[in-house]
Design a protein that fits this description.
With 217 residues, this protein is an alpha+beta fold. It is built from six helices and ten strands.
Length: 217
């Protein structure tokens, strides 16, 4: 189960409100049958004091250019349009290890504010997509992508027409896309996927089980 966007108004901090809200969210996840809670933290010490620990593997890239020899001329890039939800969801399911979600959930995610979604096409077929930015906390970040690596590169190249740098998140093993980014001179760094907490005395998942791998792409 995932917890996101925890924030307390500055005038109301220091009263234990965030802790109470977090505990309530954990109770909701337990009631839904979740064995662990997972989140991304700006203040890791706050969550560590409440039972959370770093978990999972993530590979990140800092990309400032896509060399021309890695780009495919036959590909074109366009923005997301209403009606693209099904094909994006299908590409998302190509990931070998992923968070299970429905097409309806994918559609809701695609409507997040301040998020730019690009699709790469060859002829009339959509081959890849990239989600860039989201809300106020993922500015400049390509935080989700899927499909053919060359299509993802085409989308990243389009993003770089408006930005000097793009930060690409690749939870788990980035596979062929990572190899292409390496060959293009991107800076690679290994990190953690997030923070997790067991929600009961007994857990069906061992520590380190939360690895969102993308090795099938």
């Amino acid at each position: 189960g995932f917890i996101g966007s925890v924030s307390t108004h500055p005038d109301a901090r220091g009263r234990g409100l965030a802790t109470r809200l977090l505990m309530h969210a954990e109770d909701e996840l337990r009631a839904a049958g979740c064995e662990h809670a997972m989140l991304w933290a700006d203040d890791s010490e706050f969550y560590a004091r409440r039972g959370y620990a770093l978990d999972g593997d993530e590979t990140d890239f800092l990309v400032d250019r896509i060399p021309e020899h890695l780009l495919t001329e036959e590909l074109s890039v366009r923005p997301f349009e209403v009606g693209d939800e099904a094909v994006i969801h299908e590409l998302y399911t190509w990931h070998g290890a992923r968070v299970e979600r429905s097409q309806e959930e994918t559609a809701r995610l695609l409507s997040c504010p301040h998020m730019r979604v690009l699709l790469a096409k060859c002829g009339g077929e959509v081959l890849a997509y990239v989600c860039y930015g989201r809300g106020g906390d993922l500015h400049g970040v390509a935080h989700e992508w899927g499909g053919a690596p060359e299509g993802v590169l085409a989308c990243l190249n389009e993003l770089l027409q408006r930005s000097e740098l793009v930060f690409v998140m690749a939870p788990g093993d980035p596979g062929p896309l990572g190899e292409l980014l390496d060959s293009g001179g991107a800076i690679r760094a290994e990190g953690r996927l997030g923070m997790t907490k067991p929600l009961g005395m007994e857990s069906a998942l061992p520590a380190g089980a939360f690895v969102w791998g993308l090795d099938s792409i």
